[in-house]
C-alpha cells in the first residue's frame, strides 16, 4: 500500500481562473468561496432558485439516500447541470453521538469537489465536537431554559414540531404535521411549542437545533474550516501522476508502547493517497516519537 517513506508534495492549482458551481439554499457559499478563491483561484457560481432539499433535510421530512459522499456528489452535479459548468462543489453534514466518545455530540462534515471534465472526485471530511446539535422534548416552553442556553438560542435557530405523529390518522392528514424552522425569537418559539404540543399525540413538542448553515453560526465556522482543508488538498499534486487532490486518507499504525511494546493508540503519522493513481505514502509526524506512554496503550491501560 505504501510506496514511499516521505514526500514533499508540490502545491499548485489547475483551477486558476476556472468556475465551479455550488447548489445551496443555505448561504454556504459565503463560507466556501473565500478559501477556493484564495488557495485555488477558483470562482464559485451559485445558480438561483435550486431546491437542494429534494436530496433530504436535517429535520427528516425528506430522508437522505446514500452515503454522505454520494449525496454530496449528487448535490454538486445538480449545480453543475443548472450552470453548465464541468466543476462543482457541495457540502454535507450529519450530527449525532461522537464516534469515539459517545456522550459527546459531534458533527461530521464532508465537502467534495467534482470535476467531470477530468473525472475527478476530491473530498475532505472531519468529525468535530464543535456543534450545538441537540434535541429536547417538552410539554411547555418553560422547560427549555437550560437547553436554550446550551444550544446558543437565539443566535442559533431552532426547529419545532409535534413529538408523536405516527398513528394512521396522521397518515391521512400529513398537511397537519407542521414543522416550523428557523425560529430565532422567544415569542415565536413559545407559539411554535404550544402549536406543536396541541398537534402531538402525546401532547409534547420536539425542539431541535436548526443545523442549516445560515441558521447556525457554529456550523458555518465548521464549513469555513473544511473549505480551507479541501482547497489545500485540491492544491496538492500527487508526486507520482501530478493529479490534484493528494492528501490524508488514514492515520498510520500506532507507535509502540514503552512498557510492553504493543501498538499504542498514538499514530506514527498519516497515510496520504492519490485519488487517481492510488499512489500512497506515509507522512511521519514531526517531532517523531519513538515510544508511547502506557496510558495510551490498550494492553497496559486495559
Ligand atoms: Zn497519482
Ligand atoms: Zn503497553
Furnish the topology, listing elements before pairings.
Elements: E1 19-21, H1 29-40, E2 43-45, H2 68-83, E3 87-97, E4 105-115, E5 120-128, E6 135-138, H3 145-150, E7 158-162, H4 168-172, E8 180-183, H5 186-199, E9 205-209, H6 217-234, E10 247-251, E11 254-256, E12 263-267, E13 269-273, E14 280-284
Parallel strand pairs: 1-2
Antiparallel strand pairs: 3-4, 4-5, 6-9, 7-8, 7-9, 10-13, 11-12, 13-14
This protein binds zinc ion (2 copies).
One zinc ion binds next to loops.
Account of the protein in words:
The protein is α+β, with helices and mostly antiparallel strands. The protein has three domains: 161 residues, B12-dependent dehydatase associated subunit (Rossmann fold, 3-Layer(aba) Sandwich); 76 residues, Dna Ligase, domain 1 (2-Layer Sandwich); 57 residues, no CATH class. It is built from six helices and 14 strands. The chain has a four-stranded antiparallel β-sheet. Helix 1 links the parallel strand 1 and strand 2. The radius of gyration is 23 Å and the shape is globular. It starts with 18 loop residues before the first strand and ends in an 18-residue tail after the last strand. Bound molecules: zinc ion (2 copies). The site of one zinc ion (ZN) has 8 residues, from loops.
Amino acid at each position: 500500500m505504501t510506496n514511499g517513506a516521505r514526500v514533499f508534495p508540490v502545491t499548485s492549482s489547475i483551477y486558476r481562473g476556472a468556475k465551479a458551481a455550488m447548489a445551496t439554499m443555505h448561504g454556504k457559499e459565503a463560507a466556501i468561496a473565500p478559501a477556493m478563491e484564495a488557495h485555488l483561484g477558483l470562482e464559485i457560481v451559485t445558480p438561483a432558485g435550486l431546491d437542494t432539499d429534494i436530496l433530504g433535510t436535517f429535520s427528516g421530512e425528506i430522508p437522505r439516500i446514500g452515503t454522505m459522499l454520494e449525496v454530496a456528489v449528487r448535490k454538486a452535479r445538480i449545480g453543475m447541470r443548472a450552470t453548465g459548468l464541468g466543476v462543482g462543489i457541495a457540502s454535507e453534514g450529519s450530527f449525532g453521538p461522537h464516534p469515539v466518545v459517545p456522550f459527546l455530540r459531534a458533527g461530521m462534515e464532508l465537502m467534495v469537489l467534482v470535476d467531470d471534465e477530468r473525472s475527478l472526485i476530491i473530498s475532505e471530511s472531519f468529525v468535530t465536537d464543535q456543534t450545538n446539535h441537540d434535541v429536547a422534548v417538552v410539554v411547555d416552553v418553560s422547560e427549555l431554559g437550560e437547553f436554550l442556553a446550551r444550544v446558543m438560542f437565539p443566535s442559533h435557530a431552532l426547529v419545532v414540531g409535534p413529538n408523536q405523529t405516527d398513528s394512521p390518522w396522521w397518515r391521512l392528514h400529513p398537511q397537519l404535521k407542521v414543522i416550523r424552522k428557523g425560529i430565532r425569537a422567544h415569542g415565536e418559539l413559545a407559539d411554535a411549542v404550544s402549536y406543536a404540543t396541541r398537534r402531538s399525540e402525546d401532547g409534547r413538542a420536539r425542539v431541535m437545533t436548526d443545523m442549516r448553515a445560515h441558521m447556525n453560526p457554529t456550523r458555518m465556522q465548521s464549513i469555513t474550516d473544511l473549505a480551507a482543508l479541501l482547497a489545500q488538498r485540491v492544491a496538492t499534486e500527487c508526486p507520482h501522476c501530478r493529479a490534484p487532490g493528494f492528501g490524508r486518507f488514514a492515520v498510520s499504525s500506532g507507535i509502540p508502547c514503552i512498557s510492553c511494546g504493543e501498538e499504542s493508540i498514538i499514530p506514527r503519522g498519516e497515510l496520504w493517497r492519490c485519488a487517481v493513481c492510488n499512489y500512497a505514502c506515509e507522512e511521519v509526524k514531526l517531532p517523531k516519537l519513538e515510544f508511547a506512554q502506557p496510558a495510551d496503550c490498550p494492553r497496559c491501560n486495559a
